[in-house]
Amino acid sequence: MSYAAGTKSLHTSDKVNHDSFASIFLGYASFSARIGRRLLPCLIVLTAVIVLRSMKGIAEARLGNEAFASGYSLAAITFLLLLLGVRKRVSSHQVGSVAIWQRSHHYLGMLCLGAYVLHAGVITTGWLESMLAISFWAITLSGLVSWYINRTAPRTLSTAGPQILRQDIPERKKQVALDAYRIAIEAAGRADSAALADHYQSTLIPFFGFSRGLLFRISPTGTHRRRILAALENRDRYLDDQGKELRRQMTSLVQIKDDLDFQSAIQNRIRLWAGVHSWLLGGFVILTIAHVLVAYQFSSRW
Amino acid sequence: MNYYRTPRSTSKCGKSSTGQSCSLGPINGKCGLQGSTADVVPCKPIRTLHWWNNVIRIAFSLLALIIVSFSWGNFSTRRVVTPGPLSLSHAQLLVSKSNGTEPMLAIDANKRCSACHPGADFQVEQENSGLTTATDVSTNQSQAKRTQSQLCLNCHIDAMPDARFGSPHDLTGPALEQLVQRGDRGESKSLLGRFVGHHPIDWESRSTECSQCHREHQGSSHDLQVMTSQRCQACHKEAFESFSNGHPEFSHYPDGAERRIAFDHKRHQDLHYTKKATGFDCKSCHVQNDQLGAVGKVFRSLPFETACASCHSEPLKSTVQDGMIVIQLPSVNRHELSEAGLDIGVWPEQASQINDGTIPIPMRWLLQAEPSGNTLLNSLPQSGRLSEVDMTSPQQRQALANLVGATKDLMSKLANQGQPGFRESIEKLIDIPSNVETNERQNAWNQQQWLDQFASGIPPDMFRAAMSEWFMPYSGIRSTTRNQSRDGSNSEITSQAASETAKVWLSSQIHSSDDDLLTEPIKNGIDSGDRLLNGDSLFDSSLPKTDNNPSSGPAFRDTKAWDQLSYGGWMIDRQRMAVVYVAKGHADPWISSWIELEKIKNPNVDSTTSIGSISQQCRSCHQLGAISRGSQCWRSERRAANISPITKFDHTPHLSLPSINDCRSCHLLAGSKGDKGHPNEFMPMQKAQCSSCHMANAAGESCTQCHNYHVGNASWR
User: Fold this and answer.
1) CB B683 within 8 A of CB B669
2) How far is A239 from chain B (nearest CA, A)?
3) B445 & B553 share domain
4) pLDDT tens profile B162-171
5) Chain A residues with beta carbon closer than 8 angstroms to that of B68
6) B149 assigned to some structural domain
7) A173 vs chain B: nearest CA distance in angstroms?
8) Max avg pLDDT among B30-39, B177-186, B287-296
9) What is the count of structural domains for chain B?
């Protein structure tokens, strides 16, 4: 290694070190901020649960019915959770961004879980209480799954090319299919590229023309994509240079189609769990009202 | 904005999945191109995910609504609403009959919830509860709206009768107010008064519910009686952190209240036990390991025979061996009376010499019960000593003569009427209201029992024998010219006929018509020819025949109480001319009755005016000052097991600890009762003695460990 090269190398090394220190510092600061952003609401939620527990104790100490105290606290938190849906439906008066509402919804959900355990415990008996509990746990668990998917989906989608709205995906798929069809027609017009057209006709038409199977929609993987791409590369020995160029274009379209399928599956998953999270809401509200009425009917009045 | 980007659309183009959707999109669920002139085939719109979400949401809501609607009327009959398993004691009430066994307490399956929850019967509001064997404490309210607590009392009313008030601590408003006011008097502030706020509170309007403290549906292992200290402090405003930190001192316990048994612990420990060189062990008297009482196995006292007799039986015996004179013939100066023209008639010579003696208290009271008894006794010296009678006063002379007549009448009454006559006299001495109130009827009934028991101690034959002995052999009427009977009639008698007259008089005084077998020997005096009596060792033929005993048979040796009546009973004291009752020892019922009578006649009587040394001896230990009537006043006050005071204590677990198993580790003697500077016999209990163990992480310090909520029988007073 020459001196100059060594000097350059040293300079490069200094720069790298400088950058690494900065990145470490910035990364640490970012990490700290991220932890702070997440830790603070968690502490607030924890404090709120302690406050609820104290309220229950205060009601108990005042010879009141602590079940009503914790029950109404739970109802109030549930009402606040429902406000996210209202915010999404009201577009004329937008108070805060949906992201803030969404985050608040998540932490309120954690608080709601604590309030529910304080109020009813983990296991309940009786038909009405059991149905109410099942509804609550179903909504809570679906919310947790939905929250997890919402947290992980953007990173997953970023690995599958540019993000496309779910509504635009069918049109894009159609465009990709047409482009593949044109390449196949062009390949069919040349003797040294006919093998690509044959392969398109025998294997790629279903891939481009139809939706993916249920298994891929539930758990999208790259297995089928790798198999198709390997088969396409195997056609190179039957193709001349122009035919190979067409094969590379076809390969690119296969990757685009697979990415679109992947994005469609992930976005459908998000929508599905968001739907599940809301399916039981109406029944839960009705059962809650019935529960409150029965509680008043059965409780001793003082 | 493209319609596809609107997330709340209920339908989308039917060709959207193929990427061939048009820009118009569906309108009202139909293809936008339908009916247009454009050469395009209209699509069949398909439902969006949003639409399906709404459908599923509505379906679940309807399902919930249907379930609630169908089960609304069946909440009380099925396990629709079960907020949690019942406690063990209540869960057994719901035992189904279908398991083959008949439960003792069965609840109608249709009323399994409404047995406790008044609002649970949705179909028939407020009918009778389902408890088939319950006592309906509010029969009049059976159809009316009842509270949950009233349903609780269907079963628990017997254990807590005062709980029906629904007031704090089961005390009625005025009683509770009284308790609080008692605590508001500054220095004498009670424990409860310290806790409760000093602001005027309308206790009448305050009501409590059972469920405020007793939380059901917490599981079979849940103890319904567990109550947190915070709940106590809902009303007891003077909150404190813990028992060791903030709880008031026990400055008033033990209080110096009078006890029924005046046992001087300090004197016994320092003087008597020291003299005897015997260890003073509290447990030898107060602990009974084979019994359990309200405060454990510790009792305030044991029976006299167990705890006291070893030292006190002999002194007591020597005190009572002379007996209690019930009737004594007053000794009068017959000569002076005769000179004053007053003839006392048949009267023993032995009691006819001088004015002497004192009218015994029992005899005085029995005379008071006679029609002119009070007048007679008021005419005599108030001291009762006959030696103080002023014989120069005609009134006193006449009173003395009347006393002789009244004594004979009294003897005659006891001999003839026996126990009913005695009972009648005693009954006249005490005032029994005829129109007693309901709560007094029990006392009145007890009083009748007391009179019966009192009268049962009278032996009529003893008085007949005394009369026979004192009056039958009488020969001392010498030359009386005028015999003034108590009814005022005068008659002339001769000395020659004196003995015969005495027999006739005695015969007239002791009725013989009822039972000749009984009265014949009396009329004839003691028959010296009786073979049975001849062989009796009581006859002492060595004794000389006196003028008073002119019969030809052998004379009796005088009865000596300490010799012949070692175990108590009746005797005729020939020297004192008295009928004497010798007590059987400690707790003699007849002597007790006299002392009780004394107390009833004059509740403020002191020992100096009592019926004698026996009474003084009794009162030296038995404090009857605060007791009205009844034999219970003699016994040490034991707390009944069913009484639930505000503060409770169980000695048993404490005595098992070696460090405090000596009573004196907590109950420190201050001094002899009544000593200067020692108003109480024991030093006040110190809170530190308890708080050294009773803390949160040790023996516990919750309020209910030492305090009862349900105060029974107002024993807290």
Assistant:
1) yes
2) 32
3) yes
4) 777 777 788 7
5) 128, 286-287, 290
6) yes
7) 7
8) B287-296
9) 4
Find the CB nearest A275 among B49, B79, B113. B49
CB B368 within 8 A of CB B374: yes
Closest chain B C-alpha to A229 CA, distance in angstroms: 24
Within this chain, do residues B310 and B361 fall inside the same structural domain, yes or no? Answer: no
Instruction: Give the pLDDT confidence score for residue B407 in this predicted structure.
Output: 92
Q: Which of B64, B149, B209 sits opposite A287 (nearest CB)?
A: B64
Pairwise CB contact (< 8 Å): A279 & B60: yes
Distance of CA B705 to the CA centre of its chain: 26
The pLDDT assigned to B129 comes to 44
Q: What's the domain range around B429?
A: 324-582
Residues of chain B contacting A57 with CB distance shorter than 8 Å = 230
> Taking CB atoms and an 8 Å cutoff, what residues of chain B touch A179?
none
Are residues B337 and B300 both part of a single domain? no
- Let me know if residue B630 belongs to a domain: no
Domain residue ranges of chain A, discontinuous segments joined by +: 16-160+272-298, 166-271
The residue out of B159, B185, B202 marking a domain boundary is B159
Calculate mean pLDDT across residues B394-413: 91
Q: How many CB pairs under 8 A join A and B?
A: 134
Residue B8 to residue A89, Cβ atoms within 8 A: yes
CA distance to partner chain A, nearest, from residue B45 (Å):
15
pLDDT digits (tens, 9 = 90+) for B265-295: 888 888 888 888 888 888 888 887 777 777 7
- Between these two residues, B71 and B17, which has the higher pLDDT value? B71
pLDDT in tens, B72-125: 766 655 566 777 788 888 887 776 554 555 544 556 666 677 778 887 765 544
A199: Cα within 13 Å, side-chain hemisphere: 24
Q: Are the beta carbons of A131 and B67 separated by less than 8 Å?
A: yes
Compute the nearest-CA separation of A252 from chain B (Å).
20
Cβ proximity of B473 and B551 under 8 Å: yes
Note whether B53 contacts A275, CB cutoff 8 Å. yes
Closest residue in B to A292 (Cα) is B81
Identify the domain boundary among B159, B174, B191: B159
Shared domain for B564 and B699, answered yes or no, is no
Q: Which residue from A173, A177, A283 is facing B64, i.e. has the nearest CB?
A: A283
Question: Three-state SS string across B658-717, please?
Answer: HHHCCHHHCCCECCCCCCCCCCCCECCCCHHHHHCCCCCCCCCCCHHHCECCCCCCCCCC
Q: Looking at the domain assignment, is residue B404 inside a domain?
A: yes
CA distance B424 to B426: 6
Task: Give B18's contacts in chain A (Cβ within 8 Å).
Answer: 170, 174
DSSP characters over B279-323: ---THHHHB-TT--BTTBSB-S---HHHHTHHHHHHHHHHHHTT-
CA dist B54 and B391 (Å) reads: 125
Interface test with A, best of B43, B51, B55, B81 (most A CBs within 10 A): B81
pLDDT at position A138: 93
For residues A130 and A284, give the distance between their C-alpha atoms in angstroms, rounded to a whole number.
Answer: 11
- List chain B residues with CB under 8 Å of A297: 117, 119-120, 122
What six digits make up the tokens of B240?
Answer: 């404190």
β-strands B578-582, B539-540 pairing: unpaired
For residues B271 and B413, membership in a common domain is answered with: no
The reply to whether B65 and B137 lie within a common domain is: no
| Residues B20 and B58 both lie in one domain | yes
pLDDT of residue A283: 92
* pLDDT single digits (tens) A111-167: 999 999 999 888 777 788 888 999 999 999 999 999 999 888 888 888 888 888 887
Hey, of A56, A63, A88, which one would you mutate to test binding to chain B, going by the most B CBs within 10 A of its CB? A63
Distance of CA B1 to the CA centre of its chain: 93
B555 occurs within a structural domain? yes
Same domain, B293 and B421: no
The pLDDT mean for chain B works out to: 72
